[in-house]
Amino acid sequence: MLAETIIKQLVAIVGEPRLLLGDDDLKRFGIDRTTLWTPAPSAVLLPGSVAEVQAIVRLANEHNLAVVPSGGRTGLSGGAVAKDGELVVAMDRLNSVLDFNPMDRTVTVGAGMITAQLQDFAEQQGLFYPVDFASTGSSQIGGNIATNAGGIKVIKYGMTRNWVAGLKVVTGNGDVLELNKGLAKNNTGYDLRHLFIGSEGTLGLICEATIQLTRPPLESSVMVLGVADFPAIMDVLRCFSTDIDLSAFEFFSQQALEKVTAHRGHPKPFETEAPFYALLEFENSSEAVLEQAMAIFETCVESGWVLDGVLSQSLSQASNLWKLREDISETLWHWKPYKNDISVRVSRMPEFLREVDELVARQYPDFEVVWYGHIGDGNLHLNILKPETLEVAQFHAKCVNVSSEIGQLLAKYEGSVSAEHGVGLLKKDYLHYSRSAEEMAMMRSIKRAFDANGILNPGKVFDELS
Ligand code: 2HG
Ligand code: ZN
């Protein structure tokens, strides 16, 4: 419960209607897509300017109140969860286009802008914002930056980080920083902008972002291929990416396809069943590219890697094929899955896949395991489905044990315990498998520099300052 005097001061900053204290609002704003924690913030604030954000942070420092920055709350790691009486600062109202520069091809937007609106804005200007994933309809650009969101086009366009040309942030200490100011070249010492990208709200609140846009792609073709086994997926990737500039290379298992077709009513890509499917996309720039793709397809079939395949013949067919991959995550929520979001270097993927496959078969013999992910980026989303007979807590306890083994395997392969969803609350116990003790100590020092009192998103990514 917040003291009456603090409530009054918060109202003085944001105005009465922008301070939410009702149970429904506290529940709604205190959680992301995870289901493991009970939301319990003490208040939700909806600031309308950078100055208001700064005033909130200063007040929070004065009274030692924890602050959780909140975007579209589509996160999968508990990074935006407020479970301990924190103040949630939701960026929803900072959602407009502040500046557009056609010469630089940059747009400056409020952090609360929905990703799909940014994509639409770019399109209206004849440009393109290439970071794309299933939750673009509700995720916000500030949250994407705070988690360095990836998605389905990383193989060609990289992560959110590549598209951030400038940031305006309020640090945990209450200072306003304008970082990089849209410059393409700027070698003036440490690039603090990059510290905030992927910091999961632990260093500051991202209020505004200058985003680089690019030229739109040509019409793209999509292929879905039925693949004989795990190793063959990598052979197929090697063959296609040697000669074709791929904009996506995704994969999913037969179980994933079964679930998504049964629950969403999407038609199967073809009759032949295969243990795995690869979905690849490329710009259909000439007849020659299409012919080359077909020739590579033939080679893959002759080599026994590919069992069947389909090439989109229209934009609507391409978009329907994409649904088979993009709708998997949402479909699987039905089973309250235990998620893994792991990566290794693409070159180590075949070996790693073999070992992780063995580990999963040994450790989860009774659980249904669904494989999918951005295989072209070395990123696997291994989802373990909860059997109906197990309570969530019991199921989670069993999976947690296996996570340590996966962590050890990742350490061996020098991989990452979080390829794109971030660490949040969910993966902080496994961070040490990917980061050395020296790196963790350095991260804590950086946190102290920007947030001396540790008020910003405490307990996320790593625990207390030590
Ligand atoms: C995807 O690639 C998302 O579909 C979600 O990153 C992955 O839900 C997941 O495990
Ligand atoms: Zn993903």
Structural overview:
The chain is an alpha+beta fold and 466 residues long. The chain folds into 4 domains: 4-92, Uridine Diphospho-n-acetylenolpyruvylglucosamine Reductase, domain 2; 97-212, Uridine Diphospho-n-acetylenolpyruvylglucosamine Reductase, domain 3 (2-Layer Sandwich); 220-329, Alpha-Beta Plaits (2-Layer Sandwich), CATH 3.30.70.2190; 336-433, Alpha-Beta Plaits, CATH 3.30.70.2740. Helix content is 35%, strand content 20%. The chain has 15 helices and 16 strands. Strands 13-10-12-11-15-16-14 form a 7-stranded antiparallel sheet, sandwiched between helices. α1 runs antiparallel to α3, α8 runs antiparallel to α10 (287-302) and α13 (349-363) runs antiparallel to α14. It is globular. The two termini are 28 Å apart. The mean pLDDT is 96. The structure holds (2R)-2-hydroxypentanedioic acid and zinc ion (ZN). Residues 76, 134, 329, 339, 381, 383 line the site of (2R)-2-hydroxypentanedioic acid.
